[in-house]
Design a protein that fits this description.
The protein is mostly helical. The chain has 16 helices and four strands. 58% of the residues lie in helices and 4% in strands.
Length: 423
């Protein structure tokens, strides 16, 4: 067991509900650990826990003999493994999760169904890290090989060749742009622009051309509807809130130009120049381009659809407990931890859960008032993590009271007023 747990506000900026904390967040820690074991990586991942709703991670030591070549070989082979093995499997897991309907089962099968859901979630998040860690390593390999060849005078130069590599986010933006063009072509763009989103959905449903637009909107949501403000399972997804999509379409209607959807000409020229001077970098460059795209695109195949499917299963358990009169509302299920949910759905006596729900809501309210702690357990040592982990998760250091920490991103120069926020 780790001696220290640190908050990670860049990945978990808000409190987690107990059920999300013991499903999604716990699966993150377990998945990273299991992925690193398979890759024989030099770090052991994390054990995840929450305290008053705030997320903390405790670093684990490897319980295997690290292979110095494990991560680099995984990075170079990521493209073929992703397309041939991992992407089909994560899609199959999501489909299987969608097929789990706990509200339809007899009482004796509910515990086994929850256990099966948990095994699928663990597998999906292990695959998640078998993608994202080699993807990160691939970009770092390009950086390191570039510095070996050309020196480190311009530390950002190796990343510029990756700038503009298409990914699922750019494809999603392209689809939203096409939706805005469809609204214009069908003559319903005024409805999207001028009506509040709820009213716009109703008005579009009253018009022939509006219904044609809604069919295209439905196609978009079938592909990208798992997106939400962040990964917390209690939050409704875009598929459940198409008003979110209409807001994005409205912004595109107000935009003068479509989003950039292709590798920039400047990046293409940088790549041609690089390979003419250093053709030995071709293999690692191709791996880095795949990894750079997958660092963004993996979420559209794993995170968003997988969490939407997981949320639906857990809400099914909530509906079951609501129908039994043990909860006041379906969303009360988020106040139960995973083991408590299992005990509840296998309890033939059907004990009331309202007091536990009230207690958990009070704990979250207290945690919101107190905020996250600097760390749990022993004071963290002042040391660096592995380079890939450092760039993905941030520095494993404790800041002083009031310190603001982070890692560099989006290089450039901006001018404007600087303001001090005192609270």
């Amino acid at each position: 067991m780790p001696a220290t747990w640190l908050p990670d506000p860049s990945h978990y900026p808000e409190q987690l509900t107990p059920l999300s904390g013991t499903v999604w967040f716990e699966a993150i820690g377990r998945g990273l650990h299991d992925a690193m074991r398979e890759l024989r990586g030099p770090f052991g991942g994390f054990e995840a826990r929450t305290d008053l709703g705030w997320a903390y991670e405790g670093e684990l030591e490897p319980d295997w003999e690290p292979d110095p070549e494990g991560l680099s070989s995984a990075a170079l082979g990521l493209s073929s493994r992703w397309e041939g093995e991992m992407k089909p499997r994560v899609h199959a897991i999501t489909e299987e999760l969608h097929g789990l309907r706990p509200e339809r089962l007899a009482p004796h099968g509910t515990g086994e169904l929850l256990d099966h859901m948990w095994s699928l979630v663990l597998e999906q998040w292990t695959l998640h890290f078998l993608v994202v860690i080699p993807a990160q390593i691939a970009t770092e390999m390009l950086h390191d090989r570039y510095v070996e060849r050309f020196g480190s005078e311009d530390d950002l130069a190796p990343y510029r060749v990756l700038d503009g590599v298409p990914n699922e986010s750019t494809e999603a933006d392209g689809w939203l742009w096409r939706l805005s063009e469809t609204a214009r072509r069908l003559g319903v763009d005024d409805v999207v622009r001028e009506f509040p989103p709820d009213a716009a959905l109703l008005r579009l449903g009253e018009l022939q051309n509006g219904r044609a637009f809604l069919r295209d909107l439905s196609d978009y949501l079938a592909r990208y509807g798992g997106r939400s403000r962040w990964h917390e399972l209690s939050l409704r997804r875009e598929a459940e809130l198409p008003q979110m999509t209409l807001e994005s379409v409205r912004l595109f209607l107000e935009s003068a130009s479509p989003p950039s959807l292709s590798h920039s000409a400047q990046a293409d020229e940088i790549e041609r120049k690089l390979l003419s001077e250093a053709p030995e970098l071709r293999d690692v460059l191709e791996a880095a381009k795949v990894g750079y795209a997958l660092k963004e695109s993996h979420a559209y195949h794993i995170d968003y659809p997988g969490l939407l499917a997981t949320r639906e299963v857990l809400l099914g358990f909530g509906r079951r407990l609501l129908a039994e009169g043990r909860l006041d509302g379906v969303d009360d299920v988020w106040m139960l931890q995973r083991d408590e949910l299992r005990a509840a759905v296998t309890d033939e006596q059907g004990g009331d859960l309202r007091a536990l729900v009230a207690e958990r809501r009070a704990e979250l309210a207290r945690g919101l008032q107190e905020g996250p702690k600097e760390y749990l357990g022993e004071r963290p040592p002042d040391e660096d993590r592995h380079a890939a982990l450092e760039k993905f998760y941030g520095r494993a250091r404790s800041g002083g009271q009031g310190a603001v920490q982070g890692i560099g991103a989006s290089p450039g120069i901006a001018e404007g007023p600087a303001r001090i926020v005192s609270g």
